[in-house]
């Protein structure tokens, strides 16, 4: 017998025998529920045998049989009522555990978020995709009504979503496209590094979403709850169903602030900041300006993260300000990186190390931030040595810039679209889903081994547009993505190391070396970042004008 914990108060297993009850009691369970009808299998003990053994051990036993494959709404309601009243924790069983988990899932609908229910059941080894619509419908049987049908549905209205929709319309203006996103605001996130350095104002990086969406798309202002790819359906919160011929998934990623103990309680105060949030980037600049002496820490979590260079960009620009202000000798700078290298593409490391030495920054590799106490100005890191042993390190600070741990959004991680790590599973060249042939993905949420940057999405959008239209019969050519990503490493105010690379760290410069040599700091690269790329983003990328982004195609 294997007990699988679904949550802290509920566990399940396949069919048990009376002798298993001692182990169940020893595990701390106080109630046993049988969800399998007597006589369903020849190897199955009757419930009264289970009940007799349970009572002898002081456990409550309940018989709530459900026929296999026929969990009704009434069954789920009854199960939820009995579960609520039963002494906790509760153990349930059936032939495989699936009926018990299904009953629990339907009973928790409306009490817990859908993604939380699916995460708990998936972690326990059970796939609830067959009842996901019922869970989304407050645990009740849902009809087959469709609330909208489109040629193409795009999930996410970030840079990737808007760019791919615009690229599609630039090629086929008559497409019926819907974009699903609950947000009201669209952000130019690459600008937040410069907001944190006092170069941009926060307002320079924001527009209303309605003002940047392509005019000919349908905006569905809602959150996605789940996917039913076998039926070509996206389920929205509230159990509305949107049907598609082709689906493009690009909702970005999730900043998991809660993964660092104490961080959420102190963000934006006590010297704790992050350029990864629009409202906190101005606080970064305030802290940098105000710090005259003390300790400044900068952190980077385990990969993958959005723009892997951003954590050290914050360090370089802050240090440059202190250097120019004559304060550098009074400030102790340290960069705590959960990884083992400064930057993943070694060609750019020498130029970066010159600045690390210039700013006298202490590099701490294999140090992962795990906790912060803002009022006490203390941070804790797990340091891992070459043998994999971990020790907890404590460090004080006057200011700390935190890059949060990151993962795919909850509704993606529990979906049939995700790989084992939770990212949308695509072919890295075509960005087509490996299992569902009418689904594509781009941007931060998919699992191709490229840098998660806006520059990458700018290259991916035309590839996906090309391939969707080829699949629809509009074209025979297939676009290939080479893994391009760009990271303008702002090593000082006025100079940038322009890292441009593709799969395997292959250098993919956009400009000839005599113009911009990406291995060396460049004033022209700074001009590109500060003056040229923002209008390219707003006026070209989001409008389907593919400047330096035409896809490579094969027939």
Which short descriptors sum up this protein?
555 residues, alpha/beta, Protein-Tyrosine Phosphatase, Chain A, FAD/NAD(P)-binding domain, 7-stranded mixed sheet, 5-stranded mixed sheet, 28 strands, 24% strand, globular, sulfide:quinone oxidoreductase activity
Structure description:
- The protein is of the alpha/beta class and 555 residues long.
- It folds into 3 domains: 4-136, Protein tyrosine phosphatase superfamily (Protein-Tyrosine Phosphatase, Chain A); 149-253 and 408-554, FAD/NAD(P)-binding domain (3-Layer(bba) Sandwich), CATH 3.50.50.60; 257-404, FAD/NAD(P)-binding domain (3-Layer(bba) Sandwich).
- Helices cover 28% and strands 24% of the residues.
- It is built from 16 helices and 28 strands.
- Strands 6, 7, 10, 11, 12, 13 and 24 form a 7-stranded mixed sheet that branches. A 5-stranded mixed sheet has the order 1-2-5-3-4, with helices on both faces. Strands 15-22-16-17-18 form a 5-stranded parallel sheet, with helices on one face.
- Strand 12 (233-236) and strand 13 form a beta hairpin.
- Helix 3 (73-85) crosses helix 4 and helix 7 packs parallel to helix 15.
- The longest helix is centred in the last third of the chain and has 18 residues, at 454-471.
- The chain starts with a strand and ends with a strand.
- 47% of the residues are buried.
- The model has no long low-confidence stretch (mean pLDDT 95).
- One of its GO terms (biological process) is sulfide oxidation, using sulfide:quinone oxidoreductase.
- Residues 3-110 form the Beta-lactamase hydrolase-like protein phosphatase-like domain.
- This is TIGR01244 family phosphatase.
- It holds the Pfam family BLH_phosphatase.
- Keywords: FAD, Flavoprotein, Oxidoreductase, Quinone, Transit peptide.
